[in-house]
Amino acid sequence: VSDSMVGTEDELRWALQGGDHDAIAEKITSENVNVSVGGRSPLHHLADYGHTQMVKYVLSIGANVNAVDKHGLTPLTCAVFENHPEIVCVLISHGADVTVKSPDGTPLVDCAESDEMKKLLA
């Protein structure tokens, strides 16, 4: 986390995981929107925890929709694994690569548990 960011990495991680709109808007700017927070971008955390409005916010200020985290996951992979179809739609509409594979090489569509999710990825 850069020195220009207000607060500690832990504070930011908690804000992202909790979907704290005010704290995220205060701490995340277009200059640091792709910063590593525990080896993952803010978008990874938000997609993982299902915070659709904040996913839209960080994308609007320049988040890298196809960023790869320390686990080899993209935000889309996180949203599929956690079954967040609304976030999957948002990410795809912002250019997320639906051809990515899971870290074990499985096509993302085959990782989807629901028929709804499979249709989104097809």
From TrEMBL:
GO terms for molecular function: ubiquitin-protein transferase activity. Keywords: ANK repeat, Repeat. The keyword rRNA-binding does not apply. GO terms for biological process: protein K6-linked ubiquitination. GO terms for cellular component: BRCA1-A complex; BRCA1-BARD1 complex. The keyword Repeat applies. Coiled coil: none annotated. SUPFAM superfamilies: Ankyrin repeat. It holds the Pfam family Ank_2. ANK repeats lie at residues 38-70, 71-103. This is Myotrophin.
